[in-house]
Amino acid sequence: MDGRVSVRADERERDAQGTLLDFYAEPGCWRRFTGVGGGAAWLKPDAFIRWGEGDLEHLSFVEVDRATASAPTVARKLDLYRRYWQTGREQDRFGAFGRVLLLAPHDKRRAVLAKAVKRQPTDAQRLFRAGLHKDAADLLTGRAS
């Protein structure tokens, strides 16, 4: 996990822009669930973050992309998130399913990630947000446009 994501969230908290409620890095953020065919499946995000701001709470799974995974590998990861979302387990636990932030090192890679999101079923596309590493704090706190 890229520690800069946690540092940026801490900076926002110090600037009185909200509260970092929880930060779980791997493996503490991993989720086990029943996969296709009834076998155990693991969702392994790089981090899970709960950010509070007034009455709002932002939940985010974080994937720090280093532009090394192939497009099919990225697609399989997004499929895994979608299958986990469909279980309803996260919604039972937190009342909502967190947005999956796909943080890319540069615009070209962000475009690759966004294309992978567009290949997801329409109802699942809203789960994902492709952005840049440098914009992580804005994405985590809902300040990104």
Protein model, in words:
By secondary structure, the protein is of the alpha/beta class. It contains six helices and seven strands. Strands 1-4-5-6-7 form a five-stranded mixed β-sheet, with helices on both faces. The chain has a two-stranded antiparallel sheet with strand order 2-3.
Report a brief summary of the structure.
The chain contains six helices and seven strands.
The proportion of strand residues reads 25-35%
> Strands of the biggest beta sheet: in what spatial order?
1-4-5-6-7
State the helical fraction.
25-40%
Supply the helix-strand structural class: alpha/beta
Q: How many β-strand stretches?
A: 7
Overall body shape: globular
What attributes characterize this protein structure?
two-stranded antiparallel ribbon, 6 helices, 145 residues, 7 strands, 5-stranded mixed sheet, alpha/beta
How do the helices and strands line up, and which of them pair or pack?
Blueprint: H1 3-14, E1 19-25, E2 31-34, E3 40-43, E4 47-53, E5 56-64, H2 71-87, H3 89-94, E6 99-104, H4 107-118, H5 122-125, E7 128-132, H6 136-140
Parallel strand pairs: 5-6, 6-7
Antiparallel strand pairs: 1-4, 2-3, 4-5
Helix pairs in contact: 2-4
